[in-house]
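Appendix B, record 7
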Amino acid sequence: MSRPISSRFPGVTLRQLSIAAVGILLCTAFAGAAISQQASPPASSSSTANSSKTSNQSSSGAQSTQQDMQGMGNMPGMNMSRGQMTADQMAQHDANGQMIPGHQHMGPHMKMSARRASTPEDWAKADEVVNELREGIEKYKDYRAALADGYQPFLPNLPQPMYHFTSARNGFLESFTFDASRPTSLLYKKTASGYELIGAMYTMPVRATEEELNERIPLSVAQWHLHTNLCMPKQGQAQHADFSKFGLMGSITTKASCDANGGRFYPILFGWMVHVYPFEPSRERIWEQ
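Structure tokens (predicted):
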């Protein structure tokens, strides 16, 4: 078994740890509320589908802090209670819908990292990441093992093309360290008897530069993405909202337009993300975004 690539950033500051702590508390809150929905396997079926170096995190001033809080602290969709979705949960649901392999695109609600020219070294690095990831998540082909290790599903009772089981602990660690065998999220598709593991997702904070993204997953192999420019209806107004305007599929892309329509504007939703499908038969399909 290959040795996991895991290292700690030497320049981590107390400020960065405090910011990440906010994110971990929010993630923990969502995870706890989701547990009540796990008792029995879902009955419905919905189909769609490493050698990694240390990424040194940049510490800057107030603007960096604000970006961190947008990407981690102000994370919509963390209320995982039963019943009707809140507007913020709808935002997360829309985001999940845009994460189907092959459906990433440059648009007003999606920012992609710049594609770079590929090199043999990049592919060798990517292959090692895949090998370590495949080994690391093999046991999670049984989704109950994922639940036991702290991965929690987002809205498991809502039909989705794929389901994100997220580890709050791993998401915290991803802010400062990288271990290819320890993804932030596991990706499943629902089956008649439970869930089928199809991939994983790595994350980095909004403040990460493209050089830092490239150190983890070469940008010539896969493009990281951010969800951006999101306008959601105010709390309690989702029932009557026009979702041709609101949400990640909506037409509103600026704060001025969002304010004029009585919404809440999120310049950035969550942080940088990249998907990997290590059980696919080809490199292209493994890294399809």
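Remarks on this record: The mean pLDDT is 73. Residues 14-34 form the longest helix (21 residues).
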